[in-house]
Amino acid sequence: MTVKAAFSADAAFKLYEQVMNYIEVRIERGEWKEHERLPSVRRLSDDLGVHRLTVFRAYQELKTKGRIYVKDKSGYYVQPPNGRVDREPAEDPVYGSWARADELSRIHSIQVDYQFSKALIDPALLPNRFWSELMTNVFREYPKLPGTYSTVQGDAELRGALADHFSNTGFDLSADELLITSGGQQAIDLTARTLIRPGDRVLVERPAYGPAMEIFRRQGARLLTVDIRPDGYDLERIEQCMRTEKPRLFYINPTFHNPTGFTIPAAQRKLLPELAERYGCVILEDDSTYDIHFGLKTPPPVFTYATTGHVIYIRSYSKYVAPGLRIAALACRAEHMPGLLAAKSLADNGSPLLNQKLFLHYFRSPRMQQHLEKLCTALQLRKETMERCLSDSGWAWNSPVGGLNLWVRLPRQVDMRSFLQAALTQSVSFIPGHVFDPLASMENPYIRLSYPFANEAQIREGMRRLLSVYESLK
Amino acid sequence: MTVKAAFSADAAFKLYEQVMNYIEVRIERGEWKEHERLPSVRRLSDDLGVHRLTVFRAYQELKTKGRIYVKDKSGYYVQPPNGRVDREPAEDPVYGSWARADELSRIHSIQVDYQFSKALIDPALLPNRFWSELMTNVFREYPKLPGTYSTVQGDAELRGALADHFSNTGFDLSADELLITSGGQQAIDLTARTLIRPGDRVLVERPAYGPAMEIFRRQGARLLTVDIRPDGYDLERIEQCMRTEKPRLFYINPTFHNPTGFTIPAAQRKLLPELAERYGCVILEDDSTYDIHFGLKTPPPVFTYATTGHVIYIRSYSKYVAPGLRIAALACRAEHMPGLLAAKSLADNGSPLLNQKLFLHYFRSPRMQQHLEKLCTALQLRKETMERCLSDSGWAWNSPVGGLNLWVRLPRQVDMRSFLQAALTQSVSFIPGHVFDPLASMENPYIRLSYPFANEAQIREGMRRLLSVYESLK
């Protein structure tokens, strides 16, 4: 394949992104070294057979990303890794060319009274009262707990209890097929490090959870996207993509999806593992809000439909049971476990045993179920409160049947930067939709509003302010 | 540089290792794809200008590593990542061609009565009695602890207490320059992920701590080595290596070094940061047994001599205070913190807050100092017991002034595999020295004997058995 043939307008990537990737790969490989001058725009556009503006855009984006820098207007140069990683926050934290993990955390770091940007649960809704008592019991049962290492795979007793629970809810799973991780984030990271090699393709939903995309990109993956819509995925697009691009991984969040709240229908859940098997792709199913459902039962995960090892499943309890403990479980078939154990061993040698035992005691107590029932009711009330505030606004959304977010389309284009700044000035926060766009080219004005952090009174006042800010932009 | 010129006999790598690296890089880049047939031995030896036996050895080593496979005697083929990562344990877990992290854990996994293979502290020597009481206090002070996230950098109160303590012991350090990690292992991993790019050189001690080497190699680093000797490093070798090979990182464990027990003298500690600064290298100083000293005070860490940001320092309390909590601290100057925070955020979003608060309460109580004093006495007694057992054996070692290990040279060559198997049959474990050799070419018969896990009676009986096994091999 010649260089030129690799750049085509109908590929899954936009042309300028292909050029960016071309440049980045050469920097990574050391072919273009630190502080070395890059080819001129004219030269590279000739070499690659693309328009000069396409190369110009790629260089601009790489500059924004801190991969290259401009010196004395004489040209573009390779930024050393230190300069890249350690650079100062950009002037505008929100409007990078890519949805980046730290954009989210920067918005989150702004203190506001009406917090709709964090998909985090109000600490007042989390179990707090019984931990101290549980801890006393745990120490009585395991007096040497702080002095004892966990195994790398995680406490056998906890894995046994989780396997029993999963088996009672449609999973065919043994304790050997579970790995305890420090939150769902670590489970994504370990999977990426185990399966993805530089240059591998990873298929992701669009929109998608930002930190996961950042993990894949850091692992050297090239991202491909499939839209997630209220009625599910475009399966033909998935099949075509798997056939032609052979992605190593398909990262999905099919249940109460973040940020959209959409839930993939059962018919598609059955087909996805078949597609993955046919094309040698592994599906990574992130189920971080499984228990947060309103009314109807949560549908069986994609993992439960798989007859082969082509689905890896993440259930995190960190968000909605105990963020301070950071307990999640990864479920996979035997072929993936040795690699994941090696990665976990190198990453941190196993999650702390204390946390696993404490969570275990909570998990198998009746309080767990009581907590989940109360939590779902409280979150449903908050969601409905937010939806009522929006009922006459002209803002559009699909009412989610679970999860933590409303994915709202504004009735007209606005300058998202001005809107967010004005809202923050009124002490209201939200996340602009493009932060979740792996392609950084979202056309419609979406925003994500999270309802689990603010209470109902705060939601009413915050939404009043937000709508008023929006009106004032006219 | 032509291909042939890159392969020379006087480079830091052995010739066959350079060939291995040449092949691995091409597999990583996808130039040689999964299940693709590799060039024949004859062809590659012609291409690279090396002897056929060198290529043959490289292929054999790559086969052992699971990077390539042989089919029907028709040639060598690229093993897909899954096959690599998920392969079955080799027949003989101990004798791979490289010191690998899982070799250690496999030896550790064998249950024996006389445990000299684990550099872990006997749980009976760790503080166990006061945690339950501390926990009650912690919950009283922070009732919502299990429901509260830590910041990514770690609890400000804990960082403040650590910064105070460090400042009282010769460090010039603020809380902003500390990052709390889940054990020292994670601190190494985060540093590697932040600083090392594929193809970067990393200088390591020889012998060295195995899991760290595995982390660097997985990050795509090429390892270079400098011997660690009782009187320190060969500084000329370090300078030459830094000048010609430009390593990105120099990973050191200069205090009660694992596995040798050697301690780098103060004069070298002063010079190392200067060398690092001069050649743009970052020193990663792993200080996981800082407080375990016998008699003399522990010398000031290399970090305390640095006047620039060229040293990153890891102090882990996991091993000798609370393995079940997994608390370590990484200290670095401002230029490294943003990159490390981004890596920590993607890795696990911050260590669990519960563990940090619990450790903090222990750390600032008088019990911490009392524990360390008792622990050092107990470990010194165990060390001296083991040394007395060896006094008439003809085995040779430098008596360490701290740490957890004796690095012992046997008086004659033995078949290490037979020796270990025979010892295990007698319920005694140790680690063959070559496991710690990054070059996998150790000539002298060293073994590592760890004294902190077995009590004195066990040490006496275990050493009696070990010496008797050794004699029987004659």
Automatic annotation (TrEMBL), chains A, B:
Pfam families: Aminotran_1_2, GntR. Residues 13-81 form the HTH gntR-type domain. Its cofactor is pyridoxal 5'-phosphate. The keyword Ligase does not apply. It comes from Paenibacillus zeirhizosphaerae. One of its GO terms (molecular function) is transaminase activity. This is PLP-dependent aminotransferase family protein. Keywords: Aminotransferase, DNA-binding, Pyridoxal phosphate, Transcription, Transcription regulation, Transferase. SUPFAM superfamilies: PLP-dependent transferases, Winged helix' DNA-binding domain. In the C-terminal section; belongs to the class-I pyridoxal-phosphate-dependent aminotransferase family.
